[in-house]
């Protein structure tokens, strides 16, 4: 049984019927030795009382942003900073929507906006609310912001319906808490990881460009995973609409040429992962003024080949110890990836099928195949975050085979 002695959990209880499970969660946390502070939303007070939770936790329960005594004893900023982990259980649709939009109208939401600590949410709501596009959007936003989720589970709901929306059980939430508070190995501490992500934009004239559908999601997930493993992480990114992952050094670029120059300027590095969808061609001569319709035939675009960043860095005298390319293919995925491995001189190619029906460009999941001189390894369909974590752990082991990565 993993002890949580010395760890402090801030539990925010939202206003849903599942709030009654907060009692059991507090009891379980106490048996593991964690210090617990609790915030109840106004709606939560309709389901559980501050007194019952204070009795179980042995701590004062906080309910109001505007309590002078509370602010003097422990203000909301202090509440959020003193915790090792913030847990929202139950996270109602309303609370999730407020968090996703950065609202801060009460003690719970103000504390959540002010915290710099990891946050775990245990959603609980009616299944139609869970499946509503607004909730789906909000949960996506929270995931992108780096929040962790446990549940919801399938099952019979208080409203009599059956489906996803039941809050995870207290022992499941506890397991997620233990997982998040476990000290993490940082096998890439002291190592520098260079990552490219997103598309490049190759200008045609001052208002038009050639680009592609890359959203940057896979590359940004890899950057987050590198930070988690302790690496100094340089993210060279084309234009995307994702938040900058905390802890990375962001180098925004537009064109392939700019991406190459930044990558060269970042050498030496220990590992380089080229996830970017770099445009293979640029317009040979960018027009100085906006191209006009002349009434004649449309203008022809004469293209010039862009530098191959992956191949150039693989052959650089300051080449990183491990160079990883991606291969975006629409047919003969592993065959073409094997050719790229040879032609571009990298150590490993992560091949993925980017045909329209795969949904990989812009989607949240990926099915990848690791192609190296050792052979082909097929990974199951996973979230891009899972692919990223598994890949970075593998690279950390390749860098220091004697050290066990991220146990
Ligand atoms: O961004 P997402 O929406 O999450 O989608 C992820 C992804 C599909 C973009 C990603 O998983 C992926 O496959 N990235 C590689 C895209 C690509 O350009 O593949 P490619 O097969 O054309 O290129 C092979 C490798 O050479 C890549 O590592 C690429 O970064 C690199 N390259 C290509 C051309 C070039 N001029 N310079 C390069 O460095």
Topology of helices and strands:
Elements: E1 8-13, H1 21-31, E2 35-40, H2 50-57, E3 61-62, H3 68-74, H4 76-82, E4 85-91, H5 93-100, H6 107-114, E5 119-123, H7 127-131, H8 133-144, E6 148-149, E7 153-156, E8 162-166, H9 170-181, E9 192-197, E10 202-205, E11 208-210, H10 217-228, E12 232-237, E13 248-252, H11 256-265, E14 271-274, E15 281-283, E16 303-305, H12 309-314, E17 322-329, H13 333-344, E18 348-353, E19 365-366, E20 368-372, E21 375-378, E22 382-383, H14 384-399
Parallel strand pairs: 1-2, 1-4, 2-3, 4-5, 5-6, 9-12, 9-14, 12-13, 14-17, 17-18
Antiparallel strand pairs: 7-8, 10-11, 15-16, 18-20, 19-22, 20-21
This protein binds ligand PMT.
What are its keywords?
407 residues; 8-stranded mixed beta sheet; 6-stranded parallel beta sheet; 14 helices; 33% helix; 24% strand; elongated; binds ligand PMT
Describe the structure.
The chain is α/β, with parallel strands linked by helices and 407 residues long. Helices cover 33% and strands 24% of the residues. It is built from 14 helices and 22 strands. The chain has helices at 21-31, 50-57, 68-74, 76-82, 93-100, 107-114, 127-131, 133-144, 170-181, 217-228, 256-265, 309-314, 333-344, 384-399, and strands spanning 8-13, 35-40, 61-62, 85-91, 119-123, 148-149, 153-156, 162-166, 192-197, 202-205, 208-210, 232-237, 248-252, 271-274, 281-283, 303-305, 322-329, 348-353, 365-366, 368-372, 375-378, 382-383. The strands form six sheets. An eight-stranded mixed β-sheet has the order 13-12-9-14-17-18-20-21, with helices on both faces. Strands 3-2-1-4-5-6 form a six-stranded parallel β-sheet, with helices on both faces. A hairpin with a 2-residue loop joins strand 10 (202-205) and strand 11. Helix 1 (21-31) packs across helix 9, helix 4 packs across helix 6 (107-114) and helix 5 (93-100) packs across helix 8 (133-144). It is elongated, with a radius of gyration of 25 Å. 41% of the residues are buried. The chain binds ligand PMT. Ligand PMT is lined by residues 196, 214-219, 256, 274-278, 280, 306, 308-310, 325-328, 340, 352, 354, 360-362.
């Amino acid at each position: 049984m993993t002890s949580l002695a010395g760890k402090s959990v801030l539990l925010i209880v939202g206003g849903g019927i599942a709030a009654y499970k907060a009692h059991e969660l507090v009891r379980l946390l106490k048996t593991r030795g964690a210090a617990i502070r609790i915030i109840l939303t106004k709606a939560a007070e309709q389901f559980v009382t501050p007194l019952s939770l204070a009795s179980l936790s042995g701590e004062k329960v906080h309910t109001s942003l505007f309590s002078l005594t509370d602010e003097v004893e422990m203000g909301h900023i202090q509440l959020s900073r003193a915790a090792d982990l913030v847990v929202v259980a139950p996270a109602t649709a309303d609370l999730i929507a407020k968090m996703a939009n950065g609202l801060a109208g009460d003690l719970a939401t103000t504390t959540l906006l002010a915290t710099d600590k990891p946050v775990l949410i245990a959603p609980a709501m009616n299944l139609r609310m869970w499946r509503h596009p607004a909730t789906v959007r909000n949960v996506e936003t929270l995931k992108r912001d780096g929040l962790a989720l446990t549940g919801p589970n399938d099952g019979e709901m208080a409203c009599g319906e059956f489906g996803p929306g039941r809050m995870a059980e207290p022992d499941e939430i506890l397991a997620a808490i233990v997982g998040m508070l476990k000290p993490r190995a940082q096998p890439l501490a002291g190592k520098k990881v260079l990552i490219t992500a997103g598309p490049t934009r190759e200008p045609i004239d001052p208002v038009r460009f050639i680009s592609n559908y890359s959203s940057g999601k896979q590359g940004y997930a890899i950057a987050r995973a590198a930070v988690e493993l302790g690496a100094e992480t340089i993210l060279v990114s084309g234009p995307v609409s994702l938040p900058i992952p905390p802890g990375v050094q962001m180098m925004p670029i537009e064109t392939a040429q700019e991406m190459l120059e930044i990558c060269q300027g970042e050498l030496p590095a220990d590992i380089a992962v080229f996830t970017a969808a770099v445009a293979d061609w640029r317009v040979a001569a960018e027009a100085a003024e906006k191209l006009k319709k002349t009434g004649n035939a449309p203008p022809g675009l004469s293209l010039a080949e862009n530098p191959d960043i992956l191949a150039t860095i693989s052959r650089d005298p300051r080449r990183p110890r491990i160079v990883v390319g991606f291969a975006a293919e629409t047919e003969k995925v592993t065959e073409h990836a094997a050719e790229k491995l040879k032609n571009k001189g990298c150590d490993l190619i992560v091949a993925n099928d980017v045909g329209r029906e795969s949904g990989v460009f812009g989607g949240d999941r990926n099915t990848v195949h690791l192609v190296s001189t050792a052979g082909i390894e097929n990974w199951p369909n996973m979230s891009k975050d899972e692919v990223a974590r598994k890949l970075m752990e593998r690279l950390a082991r390749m860098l220091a085979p004697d050290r066990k990565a991220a146990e």
